[in-house]
C-alpha cells in the first residue's frame, strides 16, 4: 500500500490447507504452511513493485484468532496448531467452567465465557490428551504472533488477539493468573509479555530483509487477529460503524470505548487493535451453507443471485436453522441444520436456496440484536467477505439488520487493516502530529458507494418476525435435547 495515496499497489495470495484425516471436530494446520505462504506472497508483491521495493518501510500481519501454536526450548513447533474452528475441547470448557463455579464467574474473571473456539481450553486439551507433547512446550503463541516471531525474532502478544485466548481479563488487559494456574502453573512463564496494539512488534530480521532484497529498516507492527485488523481496514474505529463479514463463517463487530461484557457470554468481549474494545459475534455457518446449496443445484454465483431476486422475502415460510457444523453464537457446538415450514408451495430449489441465505443472515441478525442490547447503536454496516459481492444478499442483509449496508473499494479488509497499522508504526506522521489513530486510518479506507443498499421496510418486518420464529424454534429444540 502506498503511504501517500493509500492505493494498493500489489497483492498476492498462496493457499494453505487443513490437515486431512483428523477425527470429527478436530481442525488443525501446520504453522510451517503459514511461513511458506507468507514468504511466497511477500516475494510476489515485491516482484510486482519492481524498483519500488526499496521504499518498503512497514509490514503488518493479520492472522486467524484463537489458534494454539506451541514451541519447545529450541523454538521449534511441537505439534500442529489447533485452530479457532476446532470444537474438540468441549469437555475442557466444561471442566474449566465447573472449577470456577459456573459461566458467570468465568465471565467475571476474563470478560468472556469459556467456549471451544478459544485458546485456553486448547491448552488444557493438550496437557490432558498429549502430555508428552505438553512437557516439551516452553512457549505458547497465537498464529499472528508466530508469524511476527518469524519476522522479527521477538515473542510478543498484543491486547486484541490476546483477548481471544480467554486467559486475559479484557477490562484490565492483564493475564488472569487464577485461570493460568488452573490450566498449568507453568503457563505464566510460557506466554509472551503483553503490549499495546499500536506499538511495533519489532524490526524485520536482517536475514529476511536481505533475502527479500529490501534496504533500510522495515518496521513490523503489532498486527492482530483478522477481526481486529478487519475493523481497522473497514474504518470501524469509531462509534456507530459496524462490520459484518460474510465469509465461510460470519462475524459482526463494533468499536466500543469501554469493555462490553455480555453476562450471557454470547457476545465476545474482545479488545480491539487500537487499544479500545471490540464486542464481537461469531457464527460458524455462512457461505459454508450457501456454497453447499449452490453446489447441490449446480448453479453459478450469477444463477444464485437470479434465483434470490425471483423468490419472495421470507421464502414463503421456509426457515433454515443453519447450524450445519454446530454453532458458536448461540453456543451449540453439537447443533445441526433444520429446515422448518416445508409445504407444497415452498419445496422448490429456489425457496430452499433463499432460505439458506436468509437463515445464515438471520443468524447474524440474532448477534446484532445482542450487540444492541449491550449498548451498540449501529448507523451503518460495512460488509466484507465473499457474500458481500452479491447485490441480492446485500439487500437481504440491509433488511435483516435494518440499517444501510455498504462495501469497500478494497475487499481484503483485514489485510488493509494490517497495512494501515504498519503505516502507523513505520512513520511518525500520526504520533508526531498528535493525529488520532481513527483519523489516520480513515484516510486509507474508501467506501464503494455503488454497493450501498437501504433497508426495505416491508421486508424488514418479514425478517423481524422470522427471527422471532427462529429463536423460538431453536429454544424449543434445544430444550428437548434435539439441537
In words, what does this structure look like?
The chain is of the alpha/beta class and 483 residues long. It folds into two domains: 28-222, ATPase, nucleotide binding domain (Nucleotidyltransferase, domain 5); 233-483, Nucleotidyltransferase, domain 5, CATH 3.30.420. The chain is built from 19 helices and 22 strands. The strands form eight sheets. The chain has a seven-stranded mixed sheet with strand order 16-17-15-14-20-21-22, sandwiched between helices. The longest helix has 25 residues, at 349-373. It is globular, with a radius of gyration of 22 Å. The mean pLDDT is 94.
Features:
483 residues, alpha/beta, Nucleotidyltransferase, domain 5, three-stranded mixed sheet, 19 helices, 22 strands, globular
Give a topology summary.
Blueprint: E1 28-29, H1 31-49, E2 58-59, E3 62-63, E4 69-71, E5 81-82, H2 90-99, H3 103-110, H4 119-129, H5 131-136, E6 139-141, H6 143-152, E7 157-158, H7 159-162, E8 168-169, E9 174-175, H8 177-183, H9 187-190, E10 194-195, E11 200-203, H10 206-211, E12 219-221, E13 224-225, H11 226-233, E14 241-246, E15 250-254, E16 268-271, E17 277-283, H12 287-297, H13 301-309, E18 319-322, E19 337-340, H14 349-373, E20 380-384, H15 391-401, E21 405-408, H16 413-426, H17 429-433, H18 437-442, E22 447-453, H19 457-479
Parallel strand pairs: 2-12, 3-13, 7-10, 14-20, 20-21
Antiparallel strand pairs: 1-5, 4-6, 8-9, 11-12, 14-15, 15-17, 16-17, 18-19, 21-22
